[in-house]
Amino acid sequence: MGKTRKSVRIVIVGAGASGIAAATRLLEKGFRNVLLLEAESRVGGRIQTLPFADNVVDLGAQWCHGEQDNAVYSLVKNTNLTDGTGNYFKDVKNIRSDKEIVNDEEASALKRFLTNSLPKETEEYKGSVGQCLAENYCRGADQLKDPKLAQEILECFKRSQSSLVGSDNLDEVSGRTHLEYKPCDGDQLIHWHDKGFYRFLQLLMKADPENINDLGVIGERLLLNKKINKINWEPSVDEIRVHTTNEETFLADYVICTMSLGVLKYCHKDLFHPPLPCSKLQAIQGLKLGTVDKIYLEFLSLPDSFIGFYSLWLEEDLQELRQSKRFWLEGISGCHRVLNQPRILQIWIGGEHGRYMETLQEAEILEALQWLFQKFLSFDIPHPQRIVRTQWHSNTNFRGSYSFRTTFADQLATGPWDLEEPLSGLDGNLKVLFAGEATSRNHYSTVHGAIEAGWREANRLNDLYLD
Ligand SMILES: Cc1cc2nc3c(=O)[nH]c(=O)nc-3n(C[C@H](O)[C@H](O)[C@H](O)COP(=O)(O)OP(=O)(O)OC[C@H]3O[C@@H](n4cnc5c(N)ncnc54)[C@H](O)[C@@H]3O)c2cc1C
């Protein structure tokens, strides 16, 4: 091999959680020639913390999901950077489109029944999550005392579950998902006080938290606004040539790709020369990057007792909504207050409706949301002072929010393991490695999955240079 940790050239494409994890691990291990190339004008990728209202909001990742075996939590558990959300969301109400607030116990019982209708923890369900839910719902339907309400809660539950998974609907989600994705035990909604998830990246980069421009140990090894449009990894040639859209070329011995599954889906044909092998193409096609967007509204103040609501559409109202220009409101899965931010509301919207919302002007979004509040709430919500919404799908550096396993991936018998598989040269030496959340076998769709994947690929290279 001839090269050492000090001289070997490693290019990392993307400075999101995974790229930063890979870079910091490599630097820790003594690699010196590490270069991060990032298409955006900022680091963090799908971690994006923005000053808003009284402190900050997270446009992407917001909570650390779990404690046990969680790469994010393992780094912060002995600090005072995080806290649990506790029962904060228990007072979010289920409200029908005629303003009726559903009794909490009745709503909880129905949601328990629906949760129990999802594929069971250890069983393999050969079909989609949507199919499994529909079958079990039909079986239990004759015991439901208010079928109309049950149907409304079912639709709302499907929207919330799709938003959790990141899918357009549950019919595209593999019934095997729960056999592969392993939730980390412990609190699922660990938050970052008034600092946001970016505080975690500052910790990882060893950056000064008081100086937002400080990028710590990666500062001198990072180039922003470098969008890669070709990775020339000719197996018979030692050197890899990495080209950018502004016609620069970087030479590398190894490249670690961390761009999202959405970017890979859209760009792999142009991006890689020679083309990717069949198994990787199957993973890129079979897995999916869904759309989950957020809208934050800032108010002068909000009523103390109001925490948020899930919208239950009466059938006749839903039909009317679907015929109107505000049809996209159907994709909203919930609306709630945010801890440490007394003056804002957070709204979740996903799938086709989310992608449509991304195309609207902010004024149109505001008008529709105010209509929604009037439709569901029996009190007046003041006019928002400011709005910020995400456009994860439209942004060509992401093309979606987070990845999930589809029934198509089941058919192709593919998964994150194929996406992770590195590309080698004719001599068998590694050339191009793949990290990013979608390559994590058990923790895809999360920051901890992205971090683990970055560390995994850094360790893979480090193992080649053990003395
Ligand atoms: C709305 C939303 C809410 C979420 N909530 C949570 C949550 O609460 N908890 C949680 O754990 N996870 C959450 N996630 C998921 C989490 O944010 C991601 O799994 C994680 O941040 C992905 O990190 P990554 O490094 O794999 O990818 P990215 O963050 O996408 O990083 C890849 C980087 O590559 C860059 N790039 C892309 N193409 C190119 C190119 N051609 N050339 C150069 N650079 C390129 C991108 O700009 C990006 O910076 C959420 C995500 C979203 C969108």
UniProtKB/TrEMBL annotation:
GO molecular function, one term: polyamine oxidase activity
Keywords: Oxidoreductase
Keyword Cell cycle: no
SUPFAM superfamilies, A to Z: FAD-linked reductases, C-terminal domain, FAD/NAD(P)-binding domain
Residue ranges of every copy of the Amine oxidase domain listed in the record: 18-461
PANTHER family assigned: AMINE OXIDASE DOMAIN-CONTAINING PROTEIN-RELATED, FLAVIN MONOAMINE OXIDASE
Protein name: Amine oxidase domain-containing protein
Species this chain originates from: Drosophila willistoni
